[in-house]
Amino acid sequence: MKDGFYRRLLSWWFLPLVATGVVLGVVGGAGWVMWGVFLRVTLGLHATWLVNSATHMWGTQRFATRDDSRNNWWVALLTFGEGWHNNHHAHPRSARHGLRWYEVDVNWWGIRALELLGVARSVKLARTPRDAAD
Ligand SMILES: [Zn+2]
């Protein structure tokens, strides 16, 4: 709340969505608004909710986290890496959820790119015994 940018973002979060809807409506009509705003937002929200529902029911547990969190590959694919949820519960401060080469984590790639560009700083990562051996 100390940063003015984030305070404004909290108040005006809908502005990019409305602007996108207006542009799509002017350029392509109501059909474009349905695909580009309503369907896109609906699918995005449901994919996000899958993280806290499906990954607490189906998948595998790498870490003994004393909860029901699971790593779920298909949720990870739909959510760009958020489906590695047991990894996240075991290492909640880690920006990287996919901890193995085969755990696709597109969100992490984006954060890493921002870090390399100097935009993201103090990025936290999980330290696992295998990481130390790599
Ligand atoms: Zn969870």
What does this structure look like?
The protein has one domain. Helix 2 (15-28) packs antiparallel against helix 3 (30-53). It is an all-alpha fold. The chain is globular, with a radius of gyration of 18 Å. The chain is built from seven helices and no strands. The protein binds zinc ion (ZN).
Secondary structure blueprint with pairings:
Elements: H1 4-11, H2 15-28, H3 30-53, H4 73-78, H5 85-90, H6 106-116, H7 129-133
This protein binds zinc ion.
Short description:
The chain is mainly α and 134 residues long. The chain has one domain.
Main attributes of the structure:
binds zinc ion, 134 residues
Strand content: under 5%
- Based on secondary structure, the structural category is mainly alpha
| Bound molecule types | zinc ion
Distance between the termini: 39 Å
**What characterizes the major β-sheet?**
none
Number of strands: 0
Using only C-alpha atoms, the radius of gyration works out to 18 Å
State the helix count: 7
Number of domains: 1
Residue runs with pLDDT of under 50 for 5 or more positions = none
User: What is the overall shape?
Assistant: globular
Determine the mean pLDDT.
Answer: 93
Tell me the series of helices and strands, N- to C-terminal: HHHHHHH
Helical fraction equals 55-70%
